[in-house]
Specification:
The complex is a heterodimer of chains A (about 350) and B (about 450). Chain A is about 35% helix and about 5% strand. Chain A has about 350 residues and is mainly α. In chain A, strands 2-3 form a two-stranded antiparallel sheet. In chain A, helix 3 (about 60-75) crosses helix 7 (about 145-155), helix 6 packs across helix 7 and helix 9 (about 270-280) crosses helix 12 (about 340-350). The longest helix of chain A is centred in the first third of the chain and has 16 residues, at about 60-75. Chain A is extended and about 75 Å long. In chain A, about 30% of the residues are buried. Chain B is α+β, with helices and mostly antiparallel strands and about 450 residues long. Chain B folds into 2 domains: about 100-320, Oxidoreductase, molybdopterin-binding domain (Sulfite Oxidase, Chain A, domain 2); about 330-450, Sandwich (Immunoglobulin-like), CATH 2.60.40.650. Chain B has helices spanning about 25-30, 35-55, 70-75, 80, 170-175, 200-205, 220-225, 250-255, 305-310, 420-425; strands at about 5, 115-120, 140, 155-160, 165, 175-185, 210-215, 235-240, 245-250, 260-265, 265-270, 280, 295-300, 315, 320, 330-335, 340-345, 345-355, 360-370, 375, 380, 390-400, 405-410, 440-445, 450-455. The longest helix of chain B has 21 residues, at about 35-55. Chain B is globular. Chain B starts with 5 loop residues before the first strand and ends with a strand. Classes of the chains: A mainly alpha (about 350), B alpha+beta (about 450). Chains A and B meet through strand 1, helix 2, helix 6, strand 4 and strand 5 of A and strand 4, strand 5, helix 8, strand 13 and strand 15 of B. Strand 5 of chain A pairs antiparallel with strand 25 (about 450-455) of chain B.
Chain lengths: ~350, ~450
């Protein structure tokens, strides 16, 4: 009797309104809302190879050159040729490639770099990416016209358009028709979807498989310590140690007590190099060569011995600045503590 | 090159010695059971047999000699004789200070700037299948952010009945699922296409990680927006970072097992891994797992974005580039012992490694200690999950002669992880991406393990 009542009560509860369990839910009411037209256009900025999404506008090679030298050249080089920070944008394409739509140098072992223009099949890709993400320290700061201008300049550097060219939404399709590597892509492979056909078929032989085992490649001796001391990249206990790459290989098995390095005890000492990377200074400043900003060496030379050095540099980091080293401004870094800045300045002055 | 013994049996180095009891005693034992007297006899016989086994049977290295008393035991240690630290000294726990050598690292010279770069996970120090969140490999295209979840939105637009906007409150109210999957960068092992280039498994294979992800199926959100599944053949996933990272995903894949995830290993995603929202595209290269996910667009054609028209395209010997290569095919690597490690003595070792497949489960892993001439099948640790890392182990006794270790995985489709020769015949050596070749580690007689390639 009691059991029955309980079951009945449960049934009544389950069928009453408001007690629907999840499996029966067909819509998730009250979750999410409709996007407004403005919201969609604020974010939906992508441009497809068929030029769907391309904004109206135009920009000349001449305007592009000006923008390029102010905002792009510091990373990509004045002619888009720089290999300092990124792979070169320009180079390796010919007029003949524009006719065939296949970049011949892609099969030339003497071609040192695969540049952007050698690879990119679709001009939309360049427009889309420059507009959404460039320049990398200030993405979304270029207008549609700026983007056309910068792109026109790149195409001009690649001898795809003449010096007096103006690129616009109206002639992008014509440019697409002469892109040097427009026929250089294939989707004829099995790696697009999970059920695609693999293009190699190995055998799982179990015994007497290879007739001879020949070592065809090893790391050269000079590269022994190229990834820094491997002993400091492994545990200091357990079945293995890391190889001490600061020394030549051991003459024989070292035995269980071998200890190339001691366990790193947590150091109270602050590592200025680490601070420099963590605070993103290293994104723009390298040790010896100028990148987006001056090198540490240049800064040290300029401020060394100046009585106002500490205050000036503290201020530079906190407030930012422009004009001392070129036209790219140094952004303010209010989040970096005074103590950290002091440690880093000291380190920079010592020649890092 | 010497072939040393590989054993598939788990656990101990030595099997219980056979026939160490006289046959009449065994009969007596079976018939009458154990007594004090018989127990004493058994014990003596076993010890004797064990001694004989050590000397004769198990390689050149005997058990470590009992020497003078071990100070670690006979001296009182600080942690035994003083009061330890209270709870919540570290409100968010961190690894032991003795683990500091195992860190994510950049490969020197690989990229010119560390804002658009990669840090590799220290696979040589991992156990099991889950990657510690703090050691998950990193790949950022324009630096990483710690995005304020209160200001993060996800938009679904394009070929949908109604474009939608979700806040984190919205998304996290939906019925969630948790699944364990590997993520591997398409360029993992890319430096090794032409020759041995980097010294350790951290740099050869460290762009793979495996986590439990929690989120909602993308199909649920597409359904809520009324996506046109007939004409909408693709979706575009877009990130909220400065690069506005974008990748095209076929609708077939999107509706299969793709997730919009906020959870990773029981907590929120780490900022470096896309906090507060990322796409999880099981089996597909990491670049498609768009981090800081802000938008999904439904469309009828692929987008040909920067990372599918300039990067992440695989150069073939003909000069053609393969576009939209996505699937991470079956692959494995021995993580211990591996390149840059130093063996201390001869004797027993547990060869251990990781295997995975973007097309399904790992079915089997074979290990060779003679450069691929002869193979033995390894034990797979459970669980063995779809598109997840799987840990394998195999017992091995090293006799001190130079050897070359290899592992070869086979997945649930029957696909066998290939030697690099087969891949190069088809794809050349300049395609950068999707190198799933068999890895070789040479152990020299001094115990040093080196990255080598064999023909």
């Amino acid at each position: 009797m009691f059991k029955w009542a309980k079951t009945a009560a449960a049934l009544a509860f389950a069928t009453s309104a408001g007690a629907v369990i999840a499996q029966d839910v067909l819509s998730y009411e009250g979750i999410g809302r409709e996007a407004t037209a403005n919201e969609v256009s604020a974010w939906d900025i992508d441009v497809r190879p068929d030029l769907k999404g391309l904004p109206k506008g135009s920009g000349s090679v001449a305007d592009g050159m000006e923008l390029w030298e102010a905002q792009c050249a510091s990373c990509h080089g004045v002619f888009g040729e720089s290999n300092e920070i990124f792979t070169p944008i320009v180079g390796g394409t010919t007029e003949a490639d524009q006719k065939t739509g296949r970049v011949a140098s892609l099969t030339d072992p003497a071609q040192p770099q695969r540049t952007t223009l050698m690879k990119v099949p679709t001009v939309s890709t360049l427009y889309d990416y420059i507009y959404r993400a460039m320049p990398w320290n200030a993405p979304r700061s270029l207008t549609a016209d700026d983007t056309y201008a910068v792109l026109a300049y790149i195409l001009n550097l690649g001898y795809i358009v003449p010096d007096d060219f103006t690129l616009s939404h109206e002639n992008m399709a014509e440019i697409q028709a002469i892109m040097p590597n427009r026929n250089g892509m294939t989707t004829d492979h099995g790696l697009l979807t999970v059920d695609g056909e693999p293009d190699v078929k190995a055998q799982a032989c179990m015994s007497d498989c290879a007739t001879q085992v020949v070592v065809t490649s090893t790391l050269p001796d000079f590269a022994r310590n190229a990834h820094e001391n491997l002993a400091e990249q492994n545990r200091t206990f357990g079945p293995y140690r890391g190889v001490d790459t600061t020394k030549p290989p051991l003459a024989q098995l070292p035995g269980v007590n071998y200890q190339p390095v001691v366990a790193m005890a947590q150091s109270a000492e602050i590592d200025p190099k680490k601070l420099f990377t963590q605070n993103n200074c290293a994104a723009c400043h390298a040790a010896a060569s100028a990148m987006v900003g001056p090198s540490i060496q240049q800064v040290a030379q300029k401020y060394q011995g100046k009585p106002q050095m500490w205050a000036e540099l503290q201020n530079k980091v906190k407030q930012g600045g422009v004009g001392n080293w070129g036209s790219i401004p140094m952004p303010p870094h209010p989040q970096v503590s005074d103590e950290d800045i002091t440690v880093m300045i000291e380190w920079m002055m010592k020649g890092s | 090159m010497s072939v040393t013994k590989l054993s598939q049996k788990p656990g101990q180095l030595r099997r219980a010695p056979e026939n160490f009891l006289p046959s009449e005693f065994r009969t007596e034992l079976t018939a009458q059971g154990m007594s004090e007297q018989r127990r004493g006899f058994l014990q003596k016989s076993f010890m004797g047999a064990l001694g004989a086994g050590l000397a004769a049977g198990v390689g050149s290295r005997a058990m470590a000699q009992s020497g003078p008393d071990d100070p670690a035991i006979v001296t009182k240690q600080e942690w035994q004789t003083t009061l330890g630290k209270p709870v919540a000294v570290k409100p968010y726990g961190t690894p032991s200070i003795y683990e500091e050598y195992l860190q994510r690292r950049e490969s020197p010279g690989l990229t010119q700037t560390s804002v658009a770069s990669v840090s590799f996970a220290p696979l040589q120090g991992f156990f099991g299948m889950i990657t510690p969140s703090g050691l998950h490999f990193e790949r950022h295209h324009q630096g990483w952010y710690d995005i304020d979840p209160a200001k993060h939105r996800l938009m679904i637009n394009g070929m949908v009945k109604k474009p939608l906007v979700f806040t984190m409150e919205d998304i996290m109210r939906l019925p969630s699922v948790s699944r364990i999957h590997f993520i591997e960068c398409g360029a993992n092992t890319g430096m090794e296409w032409g020759n041995a280039a980097v010294p350790t498994v951290q740099y050869t294979h460290g762009m793979v990680s495996c986590s439990e992800f929690t989120g909602v199926p993308l199909s649920m959100l597409l359904e809520m927006a009324g996506a046109d599944l007939k004409k909408g053949k693709f979706v575009l996933a877009e990130g909220n970072d400065g690069s506005g990272m974008t990748r095209t995903i076929p609708m077939e894949t999107a509706l299969d097992d793709v997730m919009v995830a906020w959870g990773m290993n029981g907590e929120m995603l780490r900022p470096e891994n896309g906090y507060p929202l990322r796409l999880v595209v099981p089996g597909v290269q990491g670049v498609s797992w768009v981090k800081w996910l802000r938008r999904i667009e439904v469309g009828d054609k692929p987008w040909g974005t920067k990372d599918e028209a300039i990067h992440y395209v695989d150069l073939m010997p003909s000069g053609l580039h393969r576009q939209y290569t996505s699937i991470q095919e079956c692959k494995s690597v021995i993580t211990t012992p591996s390149g840059g490690q130093q063996l201390l003595t001869t004797g027993f070792y547990n060869i251990s490694g990781l295997a995975w497949s973007g097309r399904g489960k790992v079915d089997r892993v074979d290990v060779s200690v003679d450069g691929g001439r002869n193979w033995s099948t390894a034990r797979l640790e459970s669980p063995v999950l779809d598109k997840s890392l799987t840990r394998f182990n195999i017992d091995w006794v090293w006799d001190g002669k130079p050897v070359i270790l290899q592992s070869r995985a086979i997945d649930s489709t029957g696909y066998v992880q290939p030697p690099s020769r087969l891949l190069r015949e088809k794809r050349g050596t300049r395609s950068i991406y999707h190198n799933n070749a068999i890895q070789s580690w040479q152990i020299d007689s001094n115990g040093e393990v080196r990255n080598v390639q064999v023909g």
